[in-house]
Amino acid sequence: MIKIFLALLLILVPPIVEPLETLSLSARSLEAKGWKFDDITIALSGLTAKSQQLTLSVARLLLPKPFEDLRLVNIQCSAFRWQNQELLCERGKASVRSKQWQSPETQFSFHIRKNRNTFKLSSLQLAGGSFAISAEETGELWTLQVNAKNINNRFLQKLAQPRSFELKEGQIAFNLLASGIHAQIHGFKLSAEIDGLTLQSPSGRYAAEKLSFTTHLKAKIQNDLWQWQNQTQLKNGALYIDPVYLETGAQDIRLEVQGDWDSAERRAKIGSIYYRHSPAAEINGKAILQLSKNVMLEKADVSLRSQNLQNLSAIYLKPFFGQTALEGISISGNLKADFSINQQSLNALAVSFNNLEMNDEADLMQIKGGAGTINWANNEAFTKPSQLGWQLLKIRALPFGPSGLTFLSKAKNIRLLKKTTLPFLGGEFTINQFYWQAKPHDEPDVTFEGDLNHVSLAQLSKALKWTPLSGSISGAIPRISYRNKTLTLDSNLTVNVFDGNVTVTQLASSGLFSDYPIIKADLEINNLDLEQLTSKFEFGNITGKLSGFIRKLQLENWKPVTFYAWLGTPDNDDSRHRISQQAVKNIASIGGGGASDLLSRSFLSFFETFGYDKLGLGCYLHEGVCQLTGVEATASGYAIITGGGLPRIDVIGYNSRLDWNVLLERLGRISTSKEVIVK
Amino acid sequence: MRKIPVFSAILLTACVTINIYFPAAAAEKVADEIIKDIQSNAPQKIEPKPGSELSDWQEVVFMWLDKAINALVSPAQAAEADLSIDSAEIRQLRVAMEKRFAALQPLYAAGYIGIRADGFLAVRNASSVPLKDRNQVNKLVAAENSDRQKLYQAIANANGHPDWVTQIKSTFAARWVGNAQPGWWYQSGESWKQK
Q1: A516 and B48 in contact by Cβ < 8 A?
Q2: Can you give the pTM of this predicted structure?
Q3: Fewer Cβ neighbours under 10 Å: the N or C end of chain B?
Q4: What pairs with residue A575 in β-bridges?
């Protein structure tokens, strides 16, 4: 600008050949390289005196693109000196106009010499703030300094009308110091203080609310590469980068980055990045970014340290878990993680953690005293194992004691590396095989095979809040596969319990990892010892065997919707058949029986136990109603217990249809009614 | 001219080929039932299925009444009368949507979200949603829309007509607006209106 101004003056002011007192020159318009001066008048007085009085007046100056909206009007230079190839304007005044705004009269000065030129503009009112600009040209070198205060973002929005975001509130103050040669900039330093910034991207995915921060950017060009470094510190306000929400203030959030920028290749190489969000995490790393059409993370190696996983997960992880099964998970502990990213995708990961505590609002999973290292790579040839140990691992209500697993995680799968036995409810739970295959936007495929050894039924029933049971449970769990939301068994699942066994077949499930799982199965029950089953059961003691089945069982959200079940004394059972008075009362009450009164009022109350020939009860559950059957049909109902020996007792049910909820209620409180008689 | 006896006429009517039309009226009824249930603050327990409230003699009377009506009404009309919503998948989705409604209700009331003309939800003006709630609002809307689409397909499947999904979706679109509470926003043409 200085050069053009000087050139203009030299063109306009002719050589003086006669002793004139005053010289004035007018031109209607002058245009060069996009700069257009209209109505120019130069008056030079005191030509014979030692110093001349020059008055320069330009009605309007139009600037080249992209500043075509700006117009400098009423340009006046009232203190002007020209001598010995030196031009000096000390008290210049001009106004700046645009379609959106106009500046009141601002002051400027310039000093043009042979090898050194300076230009100053002070108190330029722009975007609600004030600017002070000074420029100096020495030979080929130039420097520019801009100081801006109280720039209002609303004015900036009107002025710049940026497409990628809308500025709503806040003020900006900055200091810019730039230098260069000819038309090329060689380096700059920018220090800015932004206060109360509120902005929105059109999609709402990026936004700031009353955000205050300071930033310092320093850059210089060397070998066609811009070398730069930046320090930014957030002070107050909130920032949203979808889906992460950061609230600053008490928390110290700062970013320090240095790197270089290849403008020809549009590639940024970040030599070091340091991000600190106290008290959540610290990140160190390096990266390469490609900024052609979109920003692409070409490569990055990042280390993350967190002494406070609780904060880290709440701020940076939870936003990604919304409306998924992981939504209610909270984590605490320490973490050290190294990530390697290639072409925008996570390539490798090594995470070490200790004092890990994990809780889930839905009580699906809990970990206490967790420690270990997880190694992962997006590479099928990856072989580095991972280890996870814990003091307590709880899956739903089932607790596993102190133990650990060694596994291999790679690409989208996790595989158990060695057979592992975990302490489980006084016994053991052995995992022979485990395989997990993650699927994008869908439930994972899971394969599992294991054993149960001497697991305490007392502890199991307590954990599951069942009526207390005694004995233990053992069995082999065949390979179970959960694939395409369907659970399948390779062979039958047989569990040894109460000296008998329960075999599960036709197992199927959908939505197993959702909060409304559906499970289907057939169960065959063989020769359970009723004495063991009922010994610690408040139901009352029974001796003998129990067999039967539950077929076409369908559970929705762990509640039965339909099944066809029969449980009763098996054929050819030669064991001792005795039933206590308490058990008779309770069995009778299942069918809505009135045994209680009869037993207490009749001579039968003298007997603690009774012999029986057979007992049995069947239920076909359909549309909320249980169709009941017994050991045999009678003229008026069905026999639940047929007597054997003396004293003989038969329990007969009359009501063959029972609402399922009523049945559950009766089982819960074991009550009596008048619908069953004991004879 | 020979007269056709009334009984023969009924028999002829009974021989008409059954055309399965989309049961529009039943679909509206079903949509209302599901939407009201989802948006109820004290929802009925969906599972396990409730037992019949009718006594045996009532069931017998209604069964014969039903048979009598079927004999007189043309089969085509009879086929249009019902739309089943009895499947595990539908119950599964209703539970999830009912649970989510508690979180959606204040967003409807605040005007952050509205019902689009196609019955799906939209964030009306993303910039009006407080920053700290923005992620949750986006996730809730995405999850609800996904479940609505699954629900329409599940109803179509439960009735043996997967091809009815578009009509079910269209029926529901109107009923979501119909069942919107006062103050909620819905899309009408290109603009948003407040109920």
Answers
A1: no
A2: 0.73
A3: N
A4: none
